[in-house]
Amino acid sequence: MTAGHTHTRGFVRREVLQVGFSGFLGMSLPQVLSARALADPTAKATGRRTAGAPRAKSIIIAFMSGGLSHIDSVDMKPDAPDGIRGEFKPIDTAVAGIQFCEHMPLLAQRAGDLAVVRSLSHKYTNHLNATHELLTGHSQPGAFFDKIASRDDYPCYASGLDYLRPRTDGVPTGVMLPTYLMEGPLTWPGQHAGFLGPRHDPWQIRQDPNKPGFQVESLALPVGFSVERLGRRQALLDQVNAGMLPQTDLGRDPMSDQRARAMSLLTSGRVSGAFDLDKEDPAVRDRYGRHMFGQSLLLARRLVEAGVPIVQVNLGRVQQWDTHSANFKNLKNNLLPPTDRGMSALLDDLKARGLLDETLVVLAGEFGRTPRIGSSTGNNNTADGRDHWSKVFSALFAGGGVRGGQVVGASDRIGAYPASPPYSPGDFAATLYHALGVDPASELRDRLDRPIRLCDGSPIAPLFGT
After folding, report:
1. How far apart are CA 172 and CA 103, in angstroms?
2. pLDDT tens-digit profile of 388-431?
3. I want to staple 158 with a disulfide (CB 3.0 to 4.6 A). Which of 69, 202, 277, 374 is the partner?
4. Beta strand pairing status for 443-445 and 359-365?
5. Confidence of residue 466 (pLDDT cuts 50, 70, 90)
6. Parallel, antiparallel, or unpaired: how do β-strands 310-314 and 90-92 relate?
């Protein structure tokens, strides 16, 4: 309800059952569930499946907003000229012939589980356009510099999946955490359902799970309520509705299914229990690292266990990886170590629980950084900074049927352009959908009921050993 709304007596009782959570444009849980129920239940994929044998049930996307410097991480150029190769030294990994940055020692030890794609490429060097490109697999409609999110955008992966595989168990198809990509008036595209509408928006969590007392307030019972008392209120509400609401063709309250799903989330513990990190073994929490990166990745694992198909973990605030100045200092002290620790713990944890084979893990930013230190592609950079660079960049993949211990694609000798056929964001998107068994050629429908192809790319076949 909006502020200032006056209530009639008969509706106050209903509002104790509104278990809301924040989503794009302020969508609450009942609103999302209600809107989702209005979606066409007959919406299906085209029926044609991609080749191969997809194995993933879930995807965890670790997103580095701002863009990871590929040259200073997983595509180092130690033989490049001074001013390009940077300050960091490469180290050998557990796989002969593959080297990572010296500040990624834990991931280097786990290279046998990792596939490095070194020839991703697209044309956008603006953060917002590039983020839409990577998180939807499409160019942003009518893209211009700093074009913010709109309902004309393409859907993010969780939203596309939710449209094609609508759920009936109250478990969200997608969760994004722990930060919302927004700066001042600029809201980053690629975080919601775009033209599919808010009914398919993922659930946005905007709290740091490393903070003491972390709790998603909307999944807590109202003050003074027990599960039993809330159940009695539900029964009373049903009686009120039976006498007050007009009968539909189905002979029941059209909102009852949505309230039932909200109640299920609140009382069953299936999803809400995943957020209770205090139940996790403290030693496990320590392995992830007691920082926002580590605890967010741990929470992603718990959500996957609870049945959430797609979880996006934003590694830091919006543009935190945007190293226009102090590139090496920031990577060394603030960015690479917690990522190295958290991602390594995630891989180990998933493997120990038998979940890695069915969980695709992806580490990527919206683009890379300039090969030449201090050079500019339109921004102000200090002598020790790197600017935006989308001509070629890298991403890591593991699990979900991916064959680890390999490098896919290559950049040139200075990390400036692809030295092998490039992979587009459309191919990136097709890879994620394929891993889940979703045909990238599936058909969506926009607000005008026009057919839109889910994805224009093709899966990155070498990732799956084909």
Report:
1. 36
2. 999 999 999 999 999 999 999 999 999 999 999 999 999 999 99
3. 202
4. unpaired
5. low
6. unpaired
Q: What is the pLDDT of residues 178-190, one digit of tens each?
A: 999 999 999 999 9
Chain-centre distance for alpha carbon 133: 14
Per the rule left: phi > 0, alpha: psi between -120 and 50, beta: everything else, 326 is: left
Look at 208 and 46; give whichever has higher pLDDT: 208
**CATH classification of 39-199+278-464 is 3.40.720.10, yes or no?**
yes
> Could you give the CA distance from residue 266 to residue 270 in angstroms, rounded to a whole number?
9
Tokens at residue 32, please? 């999302």
Q: Find all residues with CB under 8 Å of 354, minimum gap 6, and list them.
A: none
**Alpha-carbon torsion angle 3, 222, 262, 301, nearest 10:** 110
Structure tokens at 122: 């697209």
CB 108 within 8 A of CB 91: yes
How far apart, in Å, are the Cα atoms of 447 and each of 138, 163, 195?
18, 13, 6
Pair 71, 415: CB distance under 8 Å: yes
